[in-house]
Design brief:
alpha+beta; Jelly Rolls; Arc Repressor Mutant, subunit A; 10 helices; globular; DNA-binding; DNA-binding transcription factor activity; transcription
Length: 292
């Protein structure tokens, strides 16, 4: 598949676009576009990249992203193995800043919505009760026509603007410094790491993948990803560890080695540095939140 980092949804005759996705896997290319985007995962698991945020995703994941914020929902490896039992489903809503007119969000009554749109430039993860409400509304959007569609989208944005259970994803210092010319190189780096994170990854090898010297690659990667390459690898490994902890099929020691760590002490240290919790505490919190 030819990697494309900048793309836009197909244009429709309506003021915004709603797409229902039914595919073997989600688009595997990191990309950005000028539209705002709401993306609801109905089925599928993997690793989610929003700007410089890297997290595990599963069914129910709901994220609101602003214009030109690079993003990717990378399905787990099993979805690329042509297994008919492994399919992904999702609903994506695209709209541009002027979908209701050039000055609509500049009106005094739209202050909260304008603030929401500004926050979306860092990506917003929607959780809790707000996610339950919005999941219902987003599923309904595809069945509506005419003015009803506009009303429901505005209700979604109004609910988001008032919500307290949303998390900002990208760091405050993240800016999109990617250019279309960066696409092949960064796509190759992403693909290599996501394929090999369970093994030892040397800087020399990944720099060769990017066709750069190790020192030049380190500078290049940090300038664009807002983090070091090794931090990037660690976040992918810990994201995978979170998925395995949630599944509760493996012991912590097994998960440590499954995620590419050589020692349990290093795994525990990296896990707490990234999540703020120990692996067992993370697992208990997830179990508790899903049974409360």
């Amino acid at each position: 598949m030819k990697p494309v980092i900048r793309k836009s949804p197909n244009q429709t005759t309506g003021s915004f676009t709603v797409k229902e996705l039914h595919d073997p896997y989600f688009d595997p290319n990191w990309h950005f576009h000028p539209e705002y985007q709401l993306f609801l995962v109905l089925e599928g698991t993997g690793t989610r990249f929003i700007g410089d945020s890297i997290k595990h995703f599963e069914a129910g994941d709901l994220v609101f992203t602003g214009p030109n914020l690079p993003h990717l929902w990378r399905s787990d490896a099993v979805y690329f193995e042509s297994n008919p039992d492994c399919q992904v489903q999702g609903i994506v809503v695209y709209f541009d800043a002027n979908f209701l007119g050039a000055d609509f969000f500049n009106k005094p009554e739209m202050f909260n919505l304008k603030n929401l749109l500004q926050q979306s430039e860092r990506g917003l993860e929607v959780t809790g009760y707000t996610r339950e409400i919005l999941t219902h509304h987003i599923k309904a959007l595809g069945q509506l026509n005419g003015f009803d569609r506009i009303l429901v989208l505005l209700e979604i944005l109004h609910t988001l603007a008032r919500a307290t259970d949303c998390n900002l994803l990208s760091s405050i210092g993240f800016t999109n410094s990617f250019k279309s010319s960066d696409t092949p190189r960064m796509q190759q780096v992403h693909d290599y790491v996501l394929t090999n994170f369970k093994n030892t990854i040397s800087l020399e090898t990944v720099a060769a993948v990017a066709n750069m010297s190790p020192s030049a690659f380190c500078r290049y990667f940090k300038a664009r990803a807002n983090k070091t390459f090794y931090d990037f690898v660690s976040e992918i490994r810990i994201g995978h560890a979170c998925k395995l902890l949630i599944e509760e099929k493996l012991a912590v020691t097994q998960i440590c080695y499954e995620c590419g760590y050589k020692t349990l002490s290093n795994f525990n240290h990296q896990f707490k540095a990234i999540t703020g919790l120990s692996p067992l505490h993370y697992q208990k919190q997830y179990t508790k939140s899903n049974h409360s």
